[in-house]
Description:
- Helix content is 30%, strand content 19%.
- With 210 residues, it is α+β, with helices and mostly antiparallel strands.
- The chain has a five-stranded antiparallel sheet.
Amino acid sequence: MTLQAEELLVAVGRxxxxxxxxxxxxxxxxxESGRVLVDEHQRVLGGGEVLEGLxxxxxxxxxxxLKHVANHEQRIVRHNILHPQRLRRSDTxxxxxxxxxxxxxxxxxxxxxxxxxxxxxxKVAVQxxxxxxxxxxxxxxxxxVKLIADAETTEILGAHLIxxxxxxxVQLLIQAMSTGQSARDIVDAQYWIHPAxxxxxxxxxxxxxx
Length: 210
């Protein structure tokens, strides 16, 4: 297939500047990508062990090039330096992603293939924008949400959306995953405005608890 276009955007991300800092001279471990390796408390590793008194966060050490991740890691480092006897972890929340194209794309958690490879029994729900009143009114014929959940507990393992306001709608699922709410918890604990875009999420969740 040949695709003709007037412009091409190549987004390749950023590389940590660990090479310019020559962290290897200090015995600091780095990944193949160059990022400094840290433990779950943001303590720098050397030879696979914690190097006391050394901390790293943000794009220098994180696999997630997201400002909010860096902000969270900074708060964790600050706490851990001030309270070494009460260390906090920085890796307890799912990290979302969004692409502001047309249509928008958003996702959080793992995909279906990864979930099934984990050995747990999973349930998958797919809901199209056109199936809800707001999506029908927008005449959207391509947008959808796909949810992956544990079949027994209905724990939400992953969510993937393509369509209008996908990066806003996914926040409902990010919150649930971050606070330990299952699909059953979300559906049973609140009313949903009708007709409104969040009904897309509601209807997908209902599939998971049937």
